[in-house]
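Cont'd.
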Amino acid sequence: MEKETSVDILRSMLAENVMLKIDASTISEDTPLFGAEGLGLDSLDALQIIIAVEKKYGISIGDATTARDALQSLGVLRDWINARLATA
Amino acid sequence: MNRPLTPHGPGFRFLDTFECLENKGIGTWHLDPNLWFFKDHFPGNPIAPAALLMEFAAQTAGSLWMQGCGEPDTAVFVASIDAMRIQSAALPDETLTTTVTLVKELGPLAQFEFEVTTGPLAVAKGRITLSRQLARPEPG
């Protein structure tokens, strides 16, 4: 199991698991994942990302509120995952 | 009269039996040679349509999810199909078995992995996401 993640790793994970409308390399760590001002991902995309995170890092995201908090952007997701890996 | 396994009407039920084993559901469907689609899919060369193999797996996944929730009469809807592979043709008079496994449930969505077999033969596999909500964006 991975001990730490990065925005680059998460960017690749995003590209592998959801249908992006833009080149993944242009996604910054602050780009919102949801909403018209961001990537415009939806709840199905969120579920795909959550399953990918669970498989790669063994961290469970068990409810929609936690998912909303953790999936704001790749930078937020990186910090959220690393905080849990550090205490695992 | 036996209670239907899904909320579908009789013309769109593709689940003859269902068994629930913790986070797995096992469904069977006998492909009666008189089923309505065999005549035209294809004339002289009948095979079960891939879309109905997917529907068979979806009905099994829905049964697993709703029976696990204690709501066996609740309708759920297909939200996405991913990584589906057809591995061999399903022919008249075969009995298909599908095993669906709950991968993750989050809010109104749940994702399942499925495999369809007939005897020792792999027929199809993939992932299905079901939703409690019917996707229907506002027009305009």
